[in-house]
Design brief:
The protein is mainly beta. It has one domain (about 10-89). The protein has one helix at about 80-89; strands at about 10, 20-25, 35-40, 50-55, 60-65, 70-75. It has a six-stranded antiparallel beta sheet with strand order 1-2-3-6-5-4, with helices on one face. A hairpin with a 2-residue loop joins β5 (about 60-65) and β6. It is globular and about 30 Å long.
């Protein structure tokens, strides 16, 4: 996976679910508002098809399947979101 160098693994110990997330410093934990999150592909239930889309809040989000995982990335820069997803496949 190629994530931006400034992103860091988020402490998810207080979350009600078990996921792995890397996000920009200061991004909220337990929320995929910015960064990249790994879900088990067998239980991932997306609202749209794979690829990058602009969200209703004006950010960019998308996902790809990579083996046993669905890799979901979101952020304000479409190119970064696309690069992260491209590196997962």
């Amino acid at each position: 996976m190629d994530v931006p160098e400034a992103w860091e693994q988020t402490d998810m110990s207080a979350c009600s679910f078990n996921i792995h997330q890397w996000a920009p410093p200061g991004a909220p934990a337990c929320s995929p508002q910015s960064g990249v999150v790994f879900y088990g592909s067998a239980t991932f239930d997306p609202a749209h098809g794979p690829g990058v889309r602009e969200t209703s809040s004006g950010t960019w989000a998308g996902y790809v399947y990579a083996g046993a995982f669905a890799v979901y990335a979101t952020g304000t820069d479409r190119d970064i979101v696309q690069r992260v997803l491209d590196s997962a496949t």
